[in-house]
Amino acid sequence: MSTTKNYAGIPDKFAQLETAKVILIPVPYDGTSTWGKGADKGPQAFLEASENMELYDIETNTEVYEQGIHLAEAITENSSPEAVVNAVHKRTKKYIKRNKFVTLFGGEHSISIGTIRAFNECFDNLTVLQIDAHADLRESYEGTKYNHACAVHEASQTTNLIQVGIRSMDAIEKTFMDEEKTFFAHDMAQDEYWMDKVIEAMTDNVLITFDLDAFDPSIMPSTGTPEPGGLLWYETLEFLKQVFEEKNVVGFDIVELCPNPTEKSSDFLAAKLYYKMLSYKFMGKAVDEEYDNTYDVDGKAGNKGLKFEDDED
Question: Does the global pTM surpass 0.85?
Answer without folding.
Answer: yes
